Amino acid sequence: MQKLILLAFLAFIGISCTTSQKLANKKPYAKLIDTSQVFAHNFTGMAIYDVDQKKTLFERNADRYFTPASNTKLFTYYSSVKTLGDSIPALRYVISGDSLIFWGTGDPTFFHHDLKNSKVFEFLKSYKRSKLFFFSDGNFTNTSMGAGWAWDDYNDYYSAEISPLPMYGNVVRINIDKEEFSPQPTIFQNSFYKKDEGTSIVRIQTDNLFLLPKSMLQKSSYTQDIPFKTSTGLTQQLLIDTLRKNVGLLHIPVPREAKTLYSTTSEDVYRLMMQESDNMLAEHLLLLCGTVIKDSLNSSFVIKTITEKYLQDLPDAPKWVDGSGLSRYNLFTPRSIVKLLEKLRADVPQEKLYSILPIGGQSGTLKNGYKTTDRPFIFAKTGSFSGVYNLSGYLLTKKGKTLAVSFMNNNFNQSTTKVRKEVEKILTWIYENQ
Fold first, then answer.
1. What CATH architecture applies to the domain 29-75+292-433?
2. At 389, which helix (H) or strand (E)?
3. 383: closest CA among 74, 167, 83, 128?
4. Cis before residue 255, ω within 30 degrees of 0?
5. pTM score
6. In this predicted model, what pLDDT tens digit does every residue of 358-372 receive, in sequence order?
7. Of 80, 161, 263, 304, which residue is least crowded by CB atoms under 10 Å?
């Protein structure tokens, strides 16, 4: 019996030594992942690429597919860089007799609550040569919500619908300050119904009717954005209400001779999309690409065109279905995202690229992290929802290296905060030591 115990003990020591030896022989990146208790039960992938040396430094499950969440916006940004110019095309229009006929381009800035742009309003409001105004949705063949979106997110600000001529960000912004109740746009003023119970404002799923708990009217400085249900008819009503002009409806395609009105600078839209992870802006930037390519407002068409024209050299073919990453149907590999980061750095000046992305410790979704170092070192897009936390972007090490990094974590059943902090810890170690 004693011999058996001794043999078992020696075997245990042998296994422990072998395990320790294996860990000792691993690259530091691998040890950081494999010794992490946070990553013990989730699926982790990582790709690190030295962009100056053009050399892959480390890969872990880099050829496996992950749900990217908002890392998808990197692909939308790249599509926009390759397709759009310095300014956003706001309208397509023609003059026919005494009529002005116009089409939406997907431009998301028309009365957007956080992008102060009045070019479209000023153009339509001041246009005197035409007596009759007509809006056509004949170039829009998209659905109002993306494939694979969660249906029960319809009331949340991040699930604003997709439309050819978005206005007010396709959300109702509700401001409450002790009995002072003011929704924007004001056309929804009479669409709110007070009720006795509840702790938040909820829209009826199938209609633009909103239930407002009476208790909320006692709040001060309260703001909530709720997506409204889009339709061509509602767009017409919003135009009439805003312009104080009659606007008719048509359903005809954009003719070749149509002119283009431009609105704001593209860079301003990119920055807000990336730093605040704005899904509505991302979805409509894809539509804008369709406008430029073929006057076709269809996300699937744009994704197919961009993939075939610019992304054939990705290591792994992406499954890419929307502009924002709301869909769980999206699937990308870490090494394909790193390849995209390499492409972006070749097409966008470095200073501009880093200013558009969230900056660790300074801006966007990374503002509250990465504060332990003497200077910002991470410029990257995050992506998260239940069971998913990813970060992909550029890491500038203390020794002066520029690394393209994609660090993806899926299928975990713990708080996203724990995973996020562990990712931060490992990336900070890389900054200090590589």
1. 3-Layer(aba) Sandwich (3.40)
2. strand 388-396
3. 74
4. no
5. 0.92
6. 999 999 999 999 999
7. 304
